[in-house]
Amino acid sequence: MMVVPCCIYGQEQISLDHQFSLGSPSLSIRLPGKPEPMETRIQPSMLEIIMAYYAYAYVDSVRGITVMLLQTSYAQHIHPDMAIISDQTIRELESRGALSVKYKTKTINIEGKKGIRQKGTLVSKGDEMDFTSSILQEGTNVWKVIIYTRVGDAVAAQTAQAIMDSITFKLL
Length: 172
Fold this sequence. Notes:
Elements: E1 18-22, E2 27-31, E3 36-37, E4 50-60, E5 65-74, H1 82-95, E6 99-110, E7 113-124, E8 127-138, E9 141-150, H2 154-165
Antiparallel strand pairs: 1-2, 3-4, 4-5, 5-9, 6-7, 7-8, 8-9
């Protein structure tokens, strides 16, 4: 009997087996696991104009992926400005310690909900990360999906893209 060394190459299977819905109308998204409620501080001055706020995070340190899911419903007299909200998203990243934030922005439309997608890199706690944020709006409702992955991790990047591609406003 002869033993022949060999290597088997393949691609890791991406499993997005947890469906999660957020807000009303409901944004549905598929994730690798269950997100947990996230504690967030809201400025007292904003409490008068925010009718509902939801924040969740899915963190998988083994796969090197973090997903933040946020939904805000504003008072009827408030008309959210997507340019301001997208700039605010970058300022929030920087206020949480992100350095060297570099990104590109493009407009998106998912099932009639207009939005903005920001893709780029940042340095957080000494680690270089890729990030993608999708910000969607309908009327006074705003949804944010922000994904962080390790730079250069092809599987994490592929997982992040699959998560973004799973965003829908239909119940799954």
